[in-house]
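Re: the request from the purification team.
They wanted to know what the chain is likely to look like in 3D before they choose a buffer screen. I agreed to run a prediction and write the result into the notebook, where they can find it.
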Amino acid sequence: MNFLTILLSTGAVMSAIMLALVFVFRANSNLLSAKTRYTIWIIILVGLLIPFRPQLISPLFTLNNPFTNVSEVKEQGEVDLTTQSSQKADTKSDLTATNQVSNVQSNEATTVKEDSKKEETKFDLLSIIGKFAIVVWLIGAIVVFAKYMLEYRKFCKLLKRWSSPVEDEDIIRIFRLTKLKLDIENKDIGLIRSKYVNTPMLTGLIRPMVVIPEKEIDETDMKLIIEHELTHYKHKDLYVNLLSILVLCFHWFNPIMYYCMPVIQGDGELYCDETVLKNKNMTYRKTYGKMIINMIPTSSSKQVALSTCFYSKKLSVKRRLISIMNNNKAMKKISTLSILGILGATVLSGSLMTFAANSSYIGLEKAKSIALKDAGVSGVTFVKAKLDSDDGVRVYDIEFYKDNVEYDYEIDAATGQILEKDLDIENYTIPQNKNNKINNLNDSNNSNNTNTSNKQNNAADIGVERAKSIALRDAGVSGVTVVKAKLDYENGVRVYDVEFYKGNVEYDYEIDAATGKILEKDRDIENYSIPQKKAAPKKDNTQSQSQSQNQSQTYNQSQNQTQSQSQSQTQTQTQTQTQSQNYSADIGAESAKSIALGDAGVSGVNFTKVQIDYEDGVKVYDVEFHKDNKEYEYEIDAATGSIRERSVDEEDD
């Protein structure tokens, strides 16, 4: 995120906090002491001057960044296609079905690149506007700072022209005694009288001096005036004044700052009064209040930069007198909690609102490199690489393929941390009459996946090969066909999802990735191959029925059980024959795509998934494609071509 967007987001949050504080302080002025309020304001001023914040929590509000650079948009929007040539070389000898999927991915990636070029053109104008806005902000900051400095320089010249050192011994004695009282007797502070000012003040950042107006002031009031102005010096109020000016220069475009600055200075005056009147009785307070009234200037008084203001129209005299006469002490616990609360809110203000697509992100190329390094592969085909949001966190969604393995990564856009990853071993098309080759392909893919996963696993990960061994040992089978072996998450627990077939039985296991414990297992009796003999089941069925009838002549209870088993076997064999016919018939990937396109009523789409899958024992085609801002997903029966499921989702631009 560039400096200007940080300034805008931080300034917006801090402005809301400032307005809330003004409302609370005016609604209940006795809730906090003037010292506490002034300390809170100083924390906020520092927070406004240093807008950079640590990202401790996920932003509550994410806004589009109007000042995005073109180079940044290109980095975050394009998909690198240079790796596809090596992918073609690696997969040249793969099955025809795999090549079809690669072509689909290539079309998708090409379209993404074309879209990114359109985005680049779209953001050219925004980039120019962003640069222009930075120039305007810089000019405004310089103008505001120059205005305050020129006013201060003019004031110093006039003050020097119409002022003279104090020669009255009584006033000098009071001045020295007050410095001694405040433990600042060694500080070089001047004391002058001037016809140019009509109210007492402290001015001079480098060489401070107390300025007293050229009018009659009795000794009691003089003591109070000098103590008040020297207290300003001890509180470092001139530096707070400089801090306020710098904040106005940074946030010159924000009207809330101009509204709140007099309030901050007013609380500085009240804090000064509070310090002078500490542990004083009511009589002393009344005398101090009368002095304040006596110092009200007869003519208008304008606040000068880098100086304190003994009297200001914007600071109500009534409010100041009420504060002077208030002898109640605020609770220290409430004051401490308030200061800590504002300090925490200031630190977190950068996390409450942020702008999207900022330069602090790691970038698309870096995200892809992180994913490839973690997967331990190269020469891949990217089908998705984009900046997205997940639960308010900006992430890079990276998806790529290597052979028959799909890798899906979700990477934190700011830190580069891998938030989520998924690895699927997929067989996109099962060719007819090539069952042996398919099994070999699955075994090869599983072996490749094992090597990849071993690189990913840490000390607390049993590895995919170990997970398969656990499942096979528990099932008590060997020589199986593994169709799924992937690392997944289940309720926050990392698990291995292992699925394989042996004969007409499907085995499904869910194994804890850390301990190797079997969390879930399932076994389904299904028939995925064509039976060799159709008469055999009938014969077995007849023999079984004959045996059950002979046994029924001797044992009545056994007859019922045997007949029930016989009926179950007959039913199972009927389902087996039907399933066998279904699995032997396959409409093909191209027909499945055509059926989906015909139903959707679109053309010229970008396919991102065309693969064979099994749903409840039925072989289906999973077809997924994109058109404009819509994502289409279809599940089509591989034997009949009927559409089992469909969904259309709107996507963000």
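For the purification team: Confidence is low (pLDDT under 50) at residues 67-102, 427-459, 527-584.
Please add any questions underneath this entry.
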